């Protein structure tokens, strides 16, 4: 009803222009309003609507006036023509380009948008032209081969093609084709250049993001709303050590909180905070379900969709190398601290052992000082010559040390393959950097766990070829005893060996009792000396001068000096010989010995030559040792070099003159080694004879020291001895 009323209004308005007095005449708005007896404003809007419908035309005649008229032909066209015109105007108003081509392919209709899309200012420029004008050859071929067959078969086609503008450039377009009833084609086209650019930007951005995620140097995981793993990038797979034969991780689809490796960290609960909207950070060691060990650090960020929790993005970085580097720096700091402390400990031990009067005290103070250091867990000293089982002589820091309970009964130790027996056999320091490593023996691992240490150093204690035992030092630090630390702690073997040797010498000199051993070698130089010689060689003293060098003082009678020279030619340890105080029937001599086997062995056990004699090619000697010396072992070692050594006697000798004890005390305790050596060399070398057989310069030359140094040592020694002598008067 409303529609009918509206139609009547427009018809009545048009009827005004059909009146005879107004036919084909332009009318103003007031004139039409008066004829209709209607409101001027309402009539103006009605007239404008009729213009839009193509039934009236209008023209402005002034700044505030306009006329309206009906075209002469308007009254003659029928309803169908009016409808077509309205449709044409509607097509002109749409944003898409619209064109109609006839059966021959020529344009019969083109709207302004269509012309503008193809770069033409006027639609009439395309009317009558073939549609090929709007496409290049490649697209025309596509139309002929693909698009048109589909269009005529199905009646329509829609897709994307590339159009050709008037300036020769091409552009992407969205094209819709429909076959009309008369065999022509209705074309609807839209320029999608901007849309394609946006799509390309989106595609590029998506590809960039994908490549960023795929090639990210950190692991990235996508968790769904239930915190199940739905995606992991290649770096994440690399971090967890995904086996090559697997296409995807077994962790996919699992709740990250329920992964065994995450549970093992003890921090699985922190991931639940993501569901509460919290960003979390984590830092923990991690061993994946495939056995790959790593150290993770990272963070996880919650995601939301339409205000609801939609999962999370988890980013993890493998900082194993960084952690290893940090641990390496930490170990280096520990090693430097240990080295600094160790230097102080070694200095302290060196000073302390010099003050000790017994071997037991030396062993105890060494263990105490090492165990008191922050760098070491405990220390022990073992006697390695007590049979197959190790005797722990001293220990500090742990009850019982390592003893025979923990290492000596280890099969590896019994066969000489353990660190202690290797040190005993090779006389070289043995290091175990990690006692809990699978490569070590089971007994050693058990001992390390029980006693709480990780690293072990076994240091042989040796001085001038004499092996006294082994010093064990244990540390809680893994990989302790690096090169610099080994070099310092290895010095303890020499320091302790020297101190024990000095104590043994003091004990031999100070003791009222000594073990006196007389030996004989029937054939000193078999076949190289005559059966009998006119004269004898008496050995009065063998004085050590350091570095396994000795000076032997003696007297030769008759032609016995020939034997001395022959020995010098046949035995490599006999070096140059010097004579002094030569008389008609005897000559006193000084023979330099370098690393002589028997002399070194005697010195190793703290013994000294009391006297010796060579006559008719037979060598005999009396040697004194401290009480308790294993004489059997001494003889066994001598026989390793001299097969025909015979023991003539062995007895315990008590020193009868108690007054000599004071002088012996001075010799053993008050005189330095240099003073005692200078004194002995001067005494037995003829320096104190009158007339003097040798000058101080000559004796000093034998000792390889300066004359002034020799005189200084002798005078200081004389003063100390004379103090005792005069005190006894």
Label the structural class: alpha+beta
Distance between the termini: 162 Å
Question: How many helical elements?
Answer: 24
Mean of pLDDT: 80
How much beta, percentage-wise? 25-35%
Subunit organisation of the chains: single chain
How much helix is in the residues? 40-55%
Q: How many beta-strand runs? A: 26
User: Which runs of at least 5 residues are low in confidence (pLDDT < 50)?
Assistant: 74-87, 89-94, 400-412
Radius of gyration: 58 Å
* Main sheet: strand order: 22-23-21-20-24-25-19-26
The profile of the biggest β sheet is: 8 strands, antiparallel
Shape: rod-shaped
Q: What's the structural blueprint in terms of helices and strands?
A:
Layout: H1 2-16, E1 27-28, H2 29-36, H3 40-52, E2 57-62, E3 65-69, H4 79-93, E4 97-101, E5 107-110, H5 112-117, H6 137-154, E6 156-164, E7 170-179, E8 185-191, H7 193-214, E9 219-223, E10 229-232, H8 234-240, H9 260-265, E11 280-287, E12 293-305, E13 308-318, H10 320-354, H11 359-372, E14 378-383, E15 391-396, H12 403-408, H13 411-414, H14 419-426, E16 430-432, H15 442-451, E17 455-463, E18 466-475, H16 483-489, H17 491-510, E19 513-521, E20 537-546, E21 549-557, H18 561-570, E22 574-580, E23 586-594, H19 597-604, E24 608-615, E25 618-625, H20 631-639, E26 646-654, H21 660-670, H22 673-684, H23 696-703, H24 707-728
Antiparallel strand pairs: 1-3, 2-3, 4-5, 4-8, 6-7, 7-8, 9-10, 9-13, 11-12, 12-13, 14-15, 14-18, 16-17, 17-18, 19-25, 19-26, 20-21, 20-24, 21-23, 22-23, 24-25
Helix pairs in contact: 1-3, 2-3, 10-11, 10-16, 10-17, 11-17, 17-21, 21-24, 22-24, 23-24
